[in-house]
C-alpha cells in the first residue's frame, strides 16, 4: 500500500521519537475475569496494573483499556506506545503474539476488557524476551478459571474520518474435557486519505510538491488455537494465523513546481495485496508440581506481498489539468516479496522450593526472502526495461539463539535477576548477476535487574539490557518507491544491524506515583535519511529519447533528486524521565492516569555516500553530505480521565489529552502535536455501546522541517485527517468464565515482526 510504505519511509524516526511508531505491535485472544480491586504496583522488572476492579475495565475493549494503563499511550487510535521507548511488543501470558500491527489493533479493539486480569508494563525486558533495540513489552495476563462450555463476542464498528470505514469481528471459544479451542475472525474496509506539502532545495534551487493519496483497503484476518491436554503433565497445541489485505487502485496525485514555475503533475496508480499464513505446533511437559516445565515449538511462516504500480508525469505550463494526448514520461514497477521462515525452539523453566528460578532456552530461525523487482521506463510510448533498477534480490538468514536467566529473592526487601542472551547470525544477500555480500556476526547480550522494596510505600529498581536491531526484510530489498520521478525512497541491502545499550532506574510511591529515569546508547544507528543531490548527463525528452543540440551533440542537463534511504549514520544517545500518577478519587467515580515524559537526545553522524548507487555510463551523480549533529530537549504529556456518570455503573465519560513538543529527529524537527479525545460509553447487560471522537480539533499531524549547514533543506507536512468519529457495538454471549485454550509461543515470533 502506497501510504504505508511512503509514510514509513518519511516518518519512521519521527513517529518513534514522538510516540507514533507503527511497526511492531502483536496480540492473540483473551478471556474473562471477575473484578475485585484495582492495584498498581512495581514488581521486580515490571509495573503491574491489576485492572480487576478498575471502573474503566467494564464494557470497553482491550485497546481502550491499554490506553488507560500507566506509562502506555495512544494518540492516533492505531498504535500503542510506552513512554520513552522506541516501540512496543505485546505478549499474552508471557507468550509473544504473532500478528502484524494492523491485525493486532483490530484484535485488541474486538476483545472485551472483562477478559483481562492484569496488564504488565516491562520497560527493560529480560533475556527471555524476544525483543530488539529499545523496545518495551506489554504483557497481558488473562484469567484462568476452568469450566466447560462456550462463549463468544460479536463486535461492529463504524469510523467516520475523511471516508466512512466499517469493520466487524467475532470470536468463539469452546472447552470440553481435555479439548480447548478458541478462534477469532475480523474483517473491514477502509480508505486512508492523506494530504502532502513537500519542499526541498538549497540557496540556488527550490522544488515544491502538493498532493494527496487515497488508499482503499479490504482486510480479512483470523486465527485458530487448539489445545489438547494429554494428561496432567503433557499438553499438545496447534495454532494457525492468517491475514489478507487488498489495496487496489491506490492513487497518489502530486503537482510539482521548480523555482516557482509549474512543471509537471505526477499520478501514481498502485495495486497491492498481502498474504500472511503462520503455523505453530507446541508440546509442553510439566516436570514438577511447583511450576517447572519444558516447552518446545516448531513453526512455519509464509509471507507474500505483490505490488504493481504505474507512475506517470505529465508536463504542465498554465494549469494543473493534464492532457493525456500530449507526450508524458512514465515508469512501471513490479515489486513482489516472498518470505519463508522455518523455526524451532526449546525453553526450560526450573523452579526450586527455596525460591530460585532458572529460565533457559535455545532457538533456531532459518529465513529465505525472494524479491524479484522489475522496472520499465516509457520510451516512444513503449515500456522498456530499466536494467539499472531491475534486480532479483535473494536474502538468506540463519539465527541461532540461546538464553539463560537466574532470578532469586535474596531477602524480604531485595531481589535480583541476571541473565544473558547469545545470538549467532549468519546471512548472505545476492543481487543476481550483479553483486553479493555476507553478514556474519555474534552478539552476547547481558541483562541485570535489581529490585529493592524499601518499605510498603517505596520501591526502587535498576535495570540494564543490551539488544540489537536487525533491518526489516522490506528495508533490505533494493527497490524504489516513487513519490515523483525525482523524489523517492530507496531500500538498502547493505545496512548494518544496530546495537542498543539500555539502562533504567524506576521508583514507585504508594502504588500510585512513579518515576522512571532511562538512558539508551545506540551504535551503528540507522534511519531513513533524506539525501539530496544531482545527476548530470544527456537530457532526455518526455518520450525518453536523448535531446541533441544544433551542433549534433547531446544537450547536457542537471537534474536534482531527493532520495530517502535507510542507512547507518553514526550514534545517538537518549535520556528520558517519566513522571506519572494513576489514582482514583471520590470512591472511584473519577479515575486519573497522568504522565509527563522529559527527553534529551544527542545525535552524531554523517552520511556522504549512497551504497546503492549504480554508475550509469555518461551520467555523473553528486551527493550532498547529510550531517546529523545536534542536541535536543523535548517533552510530552498524557492526561486520561474516566468519569462514572451513574450510580448503576452503566454510563461513563472519557476525556483524554495528549501534547508533544517540538523534537529533533534524524530527518529534521518534528513540530508540535496534540490530540483531545472524548468518549461516551453505555453498558446494557451483555451489550456495550461506545461513541468516541479522536482529535476533536484536528491537531495531530506531522510537520517536519530539516535544514543542513550547507543551506540545503527538506520540509514535509503530512495531514492524515485525524479527527475520527467511531461508533461501536459489542455483544458478549455464552459462559463468560470459560477458560481459553493454552496460549503458546511460536518459534518464529522474532521473524514475524520484521515482515
TrEMBL record:
> What residues does the Outer membrane protein beta-barrel domain cover?
286-731
Say where the protein is mainly found.
membrane
State the protein's name: TonB-dependent receptor domain-containing protein
Secretion signal, residue range per the UniProt entry = 1-18
Q: Which organism is it from?
A: Chryseobacterium kwangjuense
Q: Which Pfam families match?
A: OMP_b-brl_3
Task: Cite the entry's keywords alphabetically.
Answer: Cell outer membrane, Membrane, Receptor, Signal, Transmembrane, Transmembrane beta strand, Transport
Q: How does it sit in the membrane?
A: Multi-pass membrane protein
Does the record carry Signal as a key word? yes
Top-rank lineage group of the source organism:
Bacteria
* Subcellular location field: Cell outer membrane
